[in-house]
Amino acid sequence: MITLDELQRSTAEVGDSVHRTTISRILHKSGLYGRVARRKPFLKDIHKKCCLKFATSHLGDTPNMWKKVLWSDETEIELLATMRKSNTAHHPEHTIPTVKHGGGSIMVWACFSSAGTRKMVKIDGKMDGAKYRTILEENLMESAKDLRLGRRFVFQQDNDPKHKAKSTMEWFKNKHIQVLEWPSQSPDLNPIENLWKELKTAVHKCSPSNLTELELFCKEEWEKMSVSRCAKLIETYPKRLTAVIAAKGGATKY
Description:
Layout: H1 4-13, H2 20-29, H3 36-58, H4 63-67, E1 69-78, E2 80-84, E3 95-99, E4 105-113, E5 116-117, E6 121-123, H5 129-146, E7 154-156, H6 161-164, H7 166-174, E8 178-179, H8 192-206, H9 211-224, H10 227-235, H11 237-246
Parallel strand pairs: 1-7, 7-8
Antiparallel strand pairs: 1-4, 2-3, 4-5, 4-6
Helix pairs in contact: 3-11, 8-9
Domain Tc1-like transposase DDE: 69-213
GO molecular function, one term: DNA binding
InterPro entries: RNaseH_sf, Tc1-like_DDE_dom, Transposase_5, Transposase_Tc1-like
């Protein structure tokens, strides 16, 4: 239940990147072959069941429990150009955001809780386990302290291989940080996705002309996210879980 790309990333995580063809050849010698045609629908069902299980098991959690969670994620933000629809006035409702030619994008990491957002970090180059642990070392505990989450806060991250790497999980253990068990492929369960969408809309309205401005506007708009908005996302989290259960682990309006 894993792709060649995922296997390759796992080998890179431990320091020895192995080529896809090498991995494939070794698997074939062992009698293991991929079944591309059937894998995606099957995995989709598995992901839905995992999301449903998570939602069901946490539906009875108290509101105070969710207030103790520090939510995190990474996202890519593109440098966009604005194109006006033909034969229309130059108003926001008549414009179409498009990827700026040669503009590129930036990758950022950030976290938030019901008490607000904390520092956003631009990721330089390719993210790996070591770089991820550096981000955690420099930002996680400070963010939890600033948000007054207390010592027994819970940290949320997705199941990206660099997040679940042995060295990373040992880091959490040494820091005595509880990590929330998280289902794979579950964007509807993470309220930070709502903030990402709002952030990208706000940054586009600032019309950054280069990557330096893009980073600046991203950080400024992230800091502007209101505490009341963050609190509302967490306050309504039980409704999000209920929606996931109603959808049997599938996509929801959230």
